[in-house]
UniProtKB/TrEMBL annotation:
Taxonomic lineage of the native organism: Eukaryota, Viridiplantae, Streptophyta, Embryophyta, Tracheophyta
Pathway as given in its UniProt record: Glycan metabolism
InterPro entries: FucosylTrfase_pln, GDP-Fuc_O-FucTrfase
Protein name, UniProt field: O-fucosyltransferase family protein
Major localization listed first in the record, in broad terms: membrane
Source organism of the structure: Stephania yunnanensis
């Protein structure tokens, strides 16, 4: 006993000159408490300062306490914090007189991440970025400009220390010839350094597409953190969208905690993926014709059974109901449905509603008057779904995609808020067994499904590379996306104080 206590020559035992005295013991404990309160308070304020205004919402754990807490709790990630501060070598941008004009393509989230990549590309190429033009036709019918959807001034100011951003190209440059480039997908620093050779001939480079133009990995830490500052701090939604994003408060006042379900059982998803399981022949034919007639979908002949075996189909509303029930969510659970119209309409949605009657969506939580301004603006409506999904207690995507990835990544960044990613391949196997009468709904199914998802709650882990065996440039396509999991670059252990997130640098 004596010997072992003598070996404890650390700070606490030196501090405790007389361990047996009750008074000094009480004093010691009180000081410890005081220190930890100060430390906690300090780190909390630093973290809070660092959050974009809307997406942060403290966990609501006061209501519905009890045995079901594990259904809602955030995966263990206590020592991890967002970290987006640049390194000490980071320099302020200079006005090079060179400009990058950009046209973003894709849906809302593809454009958001693409634009943040262009912020990084502008930094790498020493260019001034002109506020991007948005996609108005290819997928989404929406005439919104950047400033309709995003807070333009906040974007420019927040990135002031990183990249010069201007609203428009200077008048005298409007008519000069521009280099028009489709940058190669998943390119790294050396590619863009080489592209800087274009400045010898041109003062303006126009970028025709922004999706996945920057690699996920092997970029300098300062570039990766810049991507995070751009996406999580600078790219805030415009005030009208942020205001309606307060739908979240309305939801909370109804039922406390809620699941945001990105239900992608949409006509185009089913048609594109060729998934017709459980549909009528007429529906399957309608989807096939749609696919046939959509030029940019290259694959026309798809075997639905094989798609399902591969886990490449979205979960149906009925399957989502089975899934949530098996995980143990009570039928009173409030579920916010993000996403477009369910294929098959209300009768198919009813297959979920019959188990979980508390289904809501932006159309039922917001008033018709509030939504009026958003009609014919798909991207703005998608922004509402995005906000409510990021802030939810549990986010569950029924299919993969840009929105699911962006929401998951944002939730990881904010503190690994729970995101349950269904193992669709595994689930389809179980559901097919049920259809063949080899398995029944009940405790066995429930435990199989729980086991299958034990490690699919969005807990901390480093971003994954491509699966083994994938070679060459194809590798980049199969890597986990940077914005789906910005760990380790933008999520650090709080023990490394120097790397801890501090707010707005260079402003
Ligand atoms: C950008 O400017 C910095 C400093 O002015 C310089 O070191 C760097 O090589 C430039 N990069 C390119 C791609 O021109
Ligand atoms: C650099 O760019 C030039 C054209 O600007 C191209 O011919 C060359 O192959 C590029 N080199 C690399 C390594 O990408
Ligand atoms: C689709 O794939 C399944 C499983 O591989 C196979 O049994 C079936 O015959 C295929 N159907 C067609 C129409 O090719």
């Amino acid at each position: 006993m004596r010997g072992s206590s003598h070996q404890r020559t650390n700070a606490s035992s030196r501090f405790l000159r007389n361990p047996s005295s009750p008074l000094s013991f009480v004093l010691y404990i009180s000081l410890l408490c005081l220190f930890s309160v100060i430390f906690f308070f300090n780190s909390t304020t630093q973290i809070l300062e660092n959050q974009p205004k809307y997406p942060f919402h403290p966990q609501h754990s006061s209501s519905l306490k009890g045995s079901d807490d594990s259904l809602w709790s955030t995966p263990f990630s206590h020592s991890l914090r967002p970290c987006v501060k640049p390194t000490s070598q980071y320099t302020a941008p200079q006005n090079s007189g060179r400009y990058l004009t950009v046209r973003s393509n894709g849906g809302l989230n593809q454009m958001r991440t693409g634009m943040c990549d262009m912020v990084a590309v502008a930094r790498i190429m020493n260019a001034t970025l002109v506020i991007p033009q948005l996609d108005r036709k290819s997928y989404w019918k929406d005439s919104s400009t950047f400033s309709d959807i995003f807070d333009e001034l906040h974007f420019i100011r927040t990135l002031q220390g990183d990249v010069r951003i201007v609203k428009e190209l200077p008048k005298e440059l409007e008519s000069v010839p521009r280099a028009r480039k489709h940058f190669m997908t998943w390119s790294g620093i050396s590619y863009y350094k080489n592209m800087s050779g274009l400045w010898k001939e041109y003062q303006v480079i126009h970028v025709a597409k922004t999706d996945s133009r920057l690699s996920n990995n092997d970029l300098p830490l300062d570039i990766q953190r810049l991507r995070c500052r751009a996406l999580y701090q600078a790219l805030r939604f415009s005030p009208p969208i942020e205001n309606l994003g307060k739908l979240v408060e309305r939801l909370r006042s109804h039922g406390g905690r809620y699941i945001a379900l990105h239900l992608r059982y949409e006509k185009d998803v089913l048609s594109f993926s060729g998934c017709t399981h459980g549909l009528s022949d007429a529906e399957a034919e309608e989807l096939r014709i749609m696919r046939e007639n959509t030029n940019h979908w290259k694959e026309k002949k798809i075997n639905s059974t094989e798609q399902r075996l591969g886990g490449l189909c979205p979960l149906s509303p009925k399957e989502v109901g089975l899934f949530l029930h098996a995980l143990g969510y009570p039928s009173s659970t409030l579920i916010y449905i993000a996403g477009g119209d369910v294929y098959g309409g209300s009768s198919r949605l009813h297959e979920l509603e019959s188990r979980f009657p508390n289904l809501v969506s932006k159309d039922t939580v917001a008033t018709a008057k509030e939504l009026e301004a958003f009609s014919d603006h798909d991207s703005q409506k998608a922004a509402l779904d995005f906000i409510v999904s990021v802030e939810s207690d549990v986010f569950i995507p029924s299919f993969s995609g840009n929105m699911a990835r962006a929401v998951e990544g944002h939730r990881r960044f904010l503190g690994h808020h729970k995101t349950i990613t269904p193992d669709r391949k595994g689930l389809f196997e179980l559901f097919d067994k049920m259809e063949r009468g080899e398995l029944e709904e009940g405790s066995l199914l429930s435990s199989l499904i729980k086991q299958m998802h034990e490690n699919r709650h969005g807990g901390p882990r480093k971003r994954g590379g491509a699966p083994p065996g994938v070679k060459g440039r194809n590798r980049f396509r199969f890597e986990e996306s940077f914005y789906e999991n910005p760990y380790p670059e933008c999520i650090c252990s709080s023990k490394k104080n120097g790397q801890m997130a501090t707010s707005k640098v260079h402003i």
